[in-house]
From TrEMBL:
Taxonomic lineage of the native organism: Eukaryota, Metazoa, Chordata, Craniata, Vertebrata
GO BP term, example: microtubule nucleation
One Pfam family per UniProt: HAUS2
PANTHER family: HAUS AUGMIN-LIKE COMPLEX SUBUNIT 2 (PTHR16039:SF1)
Protein name: HAUS augmin-like complex subunit 2
Entry GO CC: centrosome; HAUS complex; mitotic spindle microtubule
InterPro entries in the cross-refs: HAUS2 (IPR028346)
């Protein structure tokens, strides 16, 4: 008797799952369109993220170049000030 009750409970649970799947079939086309749209949007975001990452890396390299030039520029300014040379604006 207990075994039959367990089988009945399992059957009812699976039946509910199957009924839910059947209820969702009319919405399948709509859901597929939504998924397709979401996938296209994700592709765009991936491309934009890759471009942004590339720009960040370029900016970082530029900042390194600028930072490495600062001591030389300051040294040149100090040298020019010692020689009383003015640099036009």
């Amino acid at each position: 008797m207990v075994h039959l009750l367990e089988l009945a409970v399992t059957f009812i649970e699976r039946l509910e799952d199957h009924l839910e799947i059947i209820r969702n079939i009319p919405h399948l086309d709509e859901n597929l369109k939504k998924m397709s749209t979401a996938l296209a949007e994700m592709d765009i975001l991936v491309a934009e993220t890759a471009e942004l990452a590339e720009n960040i890396l370029k900016w970082r390299e530029q900042q390194k170049e600028i930072s490495s030039c600062i001591p030389r520029i300051l040294a040149e300014e100090n040298f020019l000030h010692k020689c009383d040379v003015t640099v036009p604006p």
